[in-house]
Amino acid sequence: MKQGAWWVALLMVSSLCQAATDADPLLDGATSTASEVRGVLRARSQAVLASELAGRVVDIPYAEGQTFNKGDVLVRFDCSAYQAQQNAANAAARAAREELRNKQQLAALNSVGRFEVALAEARQAQSQAEAQVYQVQVQRCQIKAPFDGQVVTRKVQAHESVASGTPLLEIVDNRSLEVHLLVPSRWLGKLKPEQTFSFVPDETGKPLDAVVKRLGARIDEGSQTLLLIGTLPANSSGLLAGMSGTAHFAEQP
Question: Strands 208-220, 73-77: parallel, antiparallel or unpaired by DSSP?
Answer without folding.
Answer: unpaired
